[in-house]
Design a protein that fits this description.
Structural class: alpha/beta
Oligomer: single chain
Helix content: 25-40%
Largest sheet: 6 strands, mixed
Strand content: 15-25%
CATH topology: Rossmann fold
Distance between the termini: 33 Å
CATH architecture: 3-Layer(aba) Sandwich
Radius of gyration: 14 Å
CATH superfamily: L-asparaginase, N-terminal domain
CATH class: Alpha Beta
Order of helices and strands: EHHEHEHEHEEEE
């Protein structure tokens, strides 16, 4: 099974935060559910405090992906800066299959897309060739061919 690395920041905001800019405190998250399901290969990478997507946090993600022995990795990540982290991984981690995923609606709200996205990412990580990908809504995208459409609350392929 692929290694699951948790960037540590997703699950902090309320549903549709890009439309309201609201923030919430730490909440139950999808990686916690993964641990409940019996997977001991999950690791939190950052503390999860402060602004989303800081460069030093990206450097931690890149370092851990580059130095771990696994060649197939899933990174759970906040959706606001997932593409930026994917770009950093593409520049710093050659030869591995890395799939980043997150949730448009935090797992704590019950009707989240997080577990579906996590399951999809775990599947994609096992079958895709080496490269950096973003997995959302049952689809996978090359890191440089995806963007978050905040108006529609989806990730989409770039032209």
């Amino acid at each position: 099974m692929p290694l699951d690395l948790d960037e540590g920041r997703r699950g902090r905001r309320r549903a549709r935060p890009e439309l309201r800019g609201e923030s919430a405190g730490p909440q139950r998250d999808a990686i916690g559910a993964l641990h409940v399901m019996g997977d001991e290969h999950g690791h939190h990478l950052t503390g999860g405090e402060g602004p989303l997507g800081r460069e030093d946090d990206r450097a931690i993600v890149v370092h851990n992906c580059r130095t771990c022995e696994e060649s197939r990795i899933v990174v759970t990540h906040g959706t606001d800066t997932i593409v930026e982290t994917a770009a950093a991984l593409a520049a710093g981690v050659p030869g591995k299959t890395i799939v980043l995923t997150g949730a448009m609606v935090p797992y704590a709200f019950g009707s989240s897309d997080g577990l579906f996205n996590l399951g999809s990412a775990l599947s994609f990580a096992q079958v895709l060739p080496p490269g950096i990908y973003v997995a959302m809504n049952g689809q996978h995208f090359a890191w440089d061919e995806v963007r978050k459409n905040r108006a529609h609350g989806v990730f989409e392929r770039t032209p």
